[in-house]
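Changelog excerpt

This revision adds worked examples to the README so contributors can see how folded entries look when concatenated. The first example is reproduced verbatim below.
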Amino acid sequence: MRSNMLTSITDGIMCCITGRTLNVVGAIDSVESSNGYDYVEVKPGRVLRVKHIVPSRTPAEEEKPVEEEGEDEEPSGKGVVHCKRKISVYRNGQVVIENLGDVIRSEILHCQNGNTDPSSRVEIELSDANATSSQDNSTNTCANGGAVPEQGTAKRRKRKPKKTVMIDCKKRITSCKGTHSDVALFFIHGVGGSLDIWKEQLDFFGKLGYEVVAPDLAGHGSSTAPKIGAAYTFYALAEDMRAIFKRYGKKRNILIGHSYGVSFCTFLAHEYPDQVHKVVMINGGGPTALEPSLCSIFNLPTCVLHCLSPCLVWSFLKAAFARQGAKEKQLLKEGNAFRVTSFVLRAMMSGQYWPEGDEVYHAELTVPVLLVHGMHDKFVPVDEDQRMAEILLIAFLKVIDEGSHMVMLECPETVNTLLHEFLLWEPEVAASEKVEAKQTTENNKCCQTCRVQHFLSLFQRKLMWSIDNRRHGGPNAHKLLCNSIHKVLLPNSTTAEWILPDGHAHGRCCQTC
């Protein structure tokens, strides 16, 4: 560690004197597949290393893919979910989300469900509005994590929203097995990582028969590192992931992202809602728009960051793992994490600008999402993942007590089991419309039963009274009897046919009688 620090300080001083950029990796020569890796040229001179595992299946082992509906056909059958919600954005920064679709339940390792109940309501404040709001517009927190405005701001919610988004579609969510040839898994790492951090997951799902795709982001791992900062903006990296997705994508794709990689998963799920089947977000943070911090250590000159790189690695080790021992250092080394150049690190941190990815953007997602959070994560508080679970339409949150930010390295067995169960999961839907129809039918049956019982008792009393009055010459006794029967059983009709059990047949009561 001491020798590395001295070398870094020496190189940093030379950088400041000569003005050259340190450790900028040039383009690699080969763009062909080798050693199980593909080198994909997404743009001229921009080559990404991709780990692509294609299982070898025999015809007997391969199962028939799930049949897809046509473009004009609505999904039907098992696993069909009616995704319906209304998103209203008000001028004071308040967002009201009303869930009007189906009820989703999950038993994935006892995950916490999001707000999937029908007619549930979530009220939040936009993150940019929170920064400028005063204490007079403060809000109370309700039980489900949303914000309920005080009485002083209740009148504002009655005003017409400046933007309303209606989501009304049906999605078929099915089990994704390793024997299905139309399923592909995409693993996307975050800042400072590489595809090697997914080693345990790639081996696990590769052995189960899944087709697995894991790219290195530009400037990370063995991908090329362009020499301009604009190559590391969110939009540039998102286009790289779009190219990888188009090249390797199947009919049903599952996206697994970690940290900054979660933003690219969200981007792809929003852009390709019919092809992205499920999403896993590991320590991804809250549903807020990305904006680089102005007061950050990564805004320092590249030469200074290079001098501080040993300290940054030590700080990352302390914050990213629940324990800081020899095992964790070895995991960090094997995972090839945080081994990027100072120039790439600075460009990556300053390029995290994505204003479109706010709460409304995430609320529009209709894909089921599994949120995995390490309890000891010092980069992403658990409150942010809880807020994400409240915003998303179909979301399940699992907190791993023994894990931290690099939970897939610390607890690989737990993460693999959790991910596999989510892939095999199919929703148990209790459609709100079906529930309401069933309740209406039961209520009608109950009301009809009560009417019949009431009629029988009333008929018996009225019949005895009518016979008694006829014997004494009551002229209106029979008409009163028919009217009483008519009001009990047919309140909305004007005529009915009856044959009285005393032998007196009358064709049409109320009108004829």
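The second example, added in the same revision:
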Amino acid sequence: MPQPKSANRAGNSGKSTPTRMLNRGKEKEEEDTQSQEQEELRRLQEEQQKMLLLKQEQEKAELARLEALEEARRESQLKWTEDRLTSIKNKAENIARDARAHAVWERYMRCDGTPDPTVLTEINTYINLTKDSKTNDIAHILEEAKLIYALIYELNFLLDDTPPEDITPEQESQYKNTILALQDLLLQRYGDGTLKILREAIYEADTESGNLQKLVRGEHEIIMLWGNLNKNPRFKSFTFESENFTFELPKPLAMAEIAIRNLKIRHDFYSHQCSTFHAKPKKPKAPESVAPAVVEDVLEGTVDDSTQESSERRPSQNPDEKRLSIAEGRKSVQSEAADSSKASEEKDANAENEAVENEETQDLVIDDDGDIGDLDDDILDEDVIDLRQYHQLGGVFHVELVKLPPQAKTINGWTLCQVIDEPMTTVEYPSEAFAPKQSSSRAASAKEEGHDSESATKAQISEQTQPSVVITIKLPSDVMFFEEPQVAKWDEQELHWKTTGINDTEYNDETRTLSFKSRNFGTFCLMQDLHVNMPFQQWELRPLGPNHCLLTITAAIAEAFIEIKGTSCRLQAPEDPEAVSSELRHLYEKWMKPDEIQKLLRIAGVNIFPAVDSDKFVSVQNKDVDLDDIYDQMALMSSAVAFTWSKWNSSVTKNQLVFQAAPWLGHGDTRKKWEPPTDQYVAPVPPPPKLTEEDWSVFMIDGRRSHKLAISEYDDTFNSKICVDGEYHSDIIHAITETPFPSRPNLPTREMVDDRISSSDSLFVYTVMGLIKATKCLTYS
């Protein structure tokens, strides 16, 4: 039988236990709590959304207020800045114009017997008389060279300093042709002096070697002469110890009547003749919708205008036409002014040449689609040096093989000398004259085998029979080379620096010596990348006092400290003695004009001044803003506000520009200077305050507006939000001076900054303008 159920189980089967009721109560409480939390969260989210919308509306209203405020005062701010900058530029230009007029008057009143290079009759007379001079003593010629160099520098200064509107194309062409004629005269006089020394070589021969070993040093040149008087077949090489110049004489020349001359000059007579010396302006492209016929019409006008401009301002790109124009220019300087009929004939001939050139140019610039291409680049051979990318350093050295004139002989007490009335003659090498002579049997066999004379001649002047000349030079001690220099040789036919025939180059960085082989003698130079120090790592413009500031450029390799005071500037030596460059000791602490320091730094190998087309060779931050106006305003504040680069400049668009600024009045030159020890007690001078990282503020130029950003240079992310209590301004000068300065004891007040800016000298501001514009620091860092 089945067992009966217990009483408890029977009694609890239809009722809830207390435990279940308790669990249900907890679940209900949890549901109520979750519902309340969700309701609270929803309410908070709604409140946050309302607060966010309210904040956005407030920000939008504040932004509208700031924009309206900037728009309301825009005209007055821009007018104040424009009037101040225009006044500064006008004053500086008037002073420069008066200085040029005074220089012209001083030149006119000079009574020292020197010719005026701008007067054609005077310079022609001087050139002709100097050419016909019978005084060929080398000391006299070196004195003549000083005057010729002075005339060349005077003409170059006129070409560089005279504004385009103050010089006519005819004057510019005349000055350039006069420079070419003076350069030819200088080289001819060097040749006359060299020939006189060679004719008297027997009297100055070295007692040990029996050869001529003479060195002549002038103010602008060094002449090294070696004459093969002894004709020793075992002779191999010779070194001019004082100049560290060594040549290895090829064996076929050991018994020849030859001499080797190395004429080293600092002035470059050749680079300005290259078609790549000047930047080529870009030609605008025609719209896509223009029909082919219209494109041809547009092209004709464009090419005609560009051809006319290029003929006035830069040399022709065609080497043949360039050589012809240079030759004609050199002749024209030495002749009187042509009559009107001859001038009209030349004008017609030039017009025909331009028409032919235009037709050739049209074939080059029209592509398959009928668009107008760019004419800004030359198509160069691989061995041609592009002077837009490289520049010559350390001067030019002419290593020439010249004919040794007959020497005097003493017979029975009589001195006999053969007189030859001819200029110094260069000897071609390699050539057939130094080819090994073939025996009659070999010549007959070669004739029987059918070898032509041309192939036989080539075999006789091969590298094995007439080896290359080996030249070893030491790099100049006053030029900085940041990489192994490239050797180039001047091509007289194509008017280019080339690397043809130069091989086996070896560079010793420790001894700064360079050795190379050249297939020919000729004119050589050393080349370095023009943009080896670009782009810059950073830059800074910091005030040192009233009308006194310091521009620091930390380039890719070098670092330059340019101090600007008044209208002069100088290159500061670094505080760290180990950072002082021995190659720049001749420039340190010497006051000069801004144009002069730019020129001397380039000559010394430190090029921190980009050219107009340097962006083709350097990765830069191109900005679609008025950079010249920004540089002008920076210069106006350079006595009271410090500027430096910002990493955020690469994080914004092309229409925006970001940099750092800080109010600063400067405390003079605070560099540590060495002083001799003394027994007298000198009280320690407390160090002047310095700018700290917290003193800098980040400013941005955004289209028409300028303002201070809320971020700092050391934040992790970029944000273009305006700073607290900041306002939009129409230009950077008002954005800096009218934005509240950081409250720090080492920083000046707004009133002090305004007083310093208003009292800045116009010429000082104009000087800073030119220097920072030359560095293009805002885009090349």
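Reviewer comment on example two: Residues 595 and 771 are 8 Å apart (CA to CA). The chain is about 40% helix and 15% strand.
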